[in-house]
Design a protein that fits this description.
Helix content: 25-40%
Strand order of the largest sheet: 3-2-1-4-7-8-9
Number of domains: 1
Distance between the termini: 37 Å
Number of helices: 7
CATH architecture: 3-Layer(aba) Sandwich
Structural class: alpha/beta
CATH topology: Rossmann fold
Number of strands: 9
CATH class: Alpha Beta
CATH superfamily: NAD(P)-binding Rossmann-like Domain
Length: 277
């Protein structure tokens, strides 16, 4: 079996400079795809010790190049629609096409660690995460979290769609979360944004299906990354008795980005070890 099943393809990963996005980029590169990374900070991994220790080169682009792939990295604010469209045009111009888009940018974050001043004596800077509830959420928190999750996803999809429609082929993978499936009001407004991504994914799949473009979502649960930290203490609440890994998610992205999922569209795959009942 040919392991380079994505040879000749071009894959875009947003939020790909670290964490899950880095994992998706490297996994797709190992399958043969050329890689485009868009992130608000292409050196975001430097902020988290767990991430720094995993890096094998200064940037994810260099890691992908070491695998023999063409790469491009762009620092872009994906909440700006014009900037997003310009970036996608640059990628298509340099790499020739866009076959796969993994819309990973986002997070349950009001202020990212690299946007904050380092605390004296601390090994790592930390994110400021959401604390809002459905009935009480500060306006600046609501706006920021909806922007970096929902708008970045929609703008990326809107920007890649014309290229895929002209090719009459493409795979779009949006990233939701179990917080967008389990509506118990926690981690608001992040869960609301991620729920909206599921709806948007289903709607977009209906529109783009006639062009042979598949649009699906993944919904990760408790996954070990540098930003979220060690949550192995939650293992007893998970039927598989462990927190998830980046590779657990990357394998599902492989399924959705390759011909294995050619007859799957408009679906959301939950990756949580069976945690949701």
């Amino acid at each position: 079996m040919n392991q380079l099943k994505l040879e000749g393809k071009v894959a875009l990963v947003t939020g790909g400079a670290r964490g899950l996005g880095r994992g998706y980029a490297l996994h797709l590169a190992k399958l043969g795809a050329d890689i485009a990374i868009i992130d608000r900070n292409l050196k975001a991994a430097e902020v988290y010790e767990f991430e720094r220790n995993q890096m094998t080169a200064p940037t994810v682009m260099e890691e992908c190049e070491a695998l023999g792939r063409r790469t491009i990295g762009l620092e872009v604010d994906l909440t700006d629609r014009n900037a997003t469209e310009t970036a996608i045009a640059q990628i298509a111009g340099k790499l020739g096409r866009i076959d796969i888009a993994v819309c990973n940018a986002g997070g349950g974050t009001v202020t990212f660690a690299d946007e904050r001043e380092a605390e004296p004596g601390a090994n790592d800077q930390t994110d400021l995460v959401t604390t809002g509830t459905p009935s009480d959420c500060a306006e600046e928190m609501l706006t920021r979290v909806l922007d970096i999750n929902l708008r970045t996803c929609m703008y990326t999809c809107m920007a890649v769609a014309p290229y895929m429609k002209r090719q009459r082929s493409g795979k779009i993978v949006t990233v939701s979360s179990t917080a967008g499936v389990d509506a118990r009001g926690r981690y608001h407004p992040y869960g609301t944004a991620k729920a909206a991504i599921i709806h948007y994914t289903r709607a977009l799949a209906q529109e783009l299906g006639p062009y042979n473009i598949n649009v699906n979502a993944i919904a990760p649960g408790v996954i070990r990354t540098g930003r979220l930290g060690d949550r192995s203490h939650l293992a007893e609440t998970i039927p598989l008795r462990r927190e998830g890994t980046i590779e657990d998610c990357a394998k599902v992205v492989e399924f959705l980005a390759t011909d294995m999922s050619d007859y799957v569209t408009g679906r959301t795959i939950i990756i949580d070890g069976g945690m949701l009942r």
